Amino acid sequence: MITTPNLNLIPCELKHFEAILNDPSVLASLLGVTVFENWFDFPGVAGIEAITHSYNYLKAHPEATGWWMYLFIHREDNSLIGYGGYKGKADAEGMVEIGYAIIDSYRCRGLASDAAQGLVDHAFRHDHVLTVDAHTLPERNASVRVLEKIGMKHVGTASDPDVGEVWHWRLERDEWRERT
Fold first, then answer.
1. What is the DSSP letter of 88?
2. Model confidence over 144-158: pLDDT tens digits?
3. Is 55 strand, coil or helix?
4. I want to staple 102 with a disulfide (CB 3.0 to 4.6 A). Which of 3, 66, 82, 177 is the partner?
């Protein structure tokens, strides 16, 4: 588990995925939290297809637990308010990529920044991680503000097979150390 000032980020295990896909009330029981209807549906970003893909990936690669999806629990409200995590273990160059999504009713409270910072801090606590990357739509938006707030720098563009051109963001270990 990753703990931030406002959130507990719980590594999503196969049992969590199975509950999400089959009966969200089971997920609420497993986590002991409130689970809002359609908490995982982020149109244009992620939805049930992403959950299914993530489940199948973790089923085939159980060693990815901890470097895959996390469930974001808002401690004060004891509610599941989003998810995110890493796109796998660090590559040969020591890079991991983060992503995150927060449900509408919990946005504009600094919780996405809280989650993203928790993911970055957790990654850099592992010596083999040298850089943390992220991608956003190529426009000024809330996700861009989150990445800027946690110290990430825009380093160029990339091509995403699902959305086309995206902005590429990066934070190096040394830059992170200076901020902490």
1. S
2. 999 999 999 999 999
3. helix
4. 82
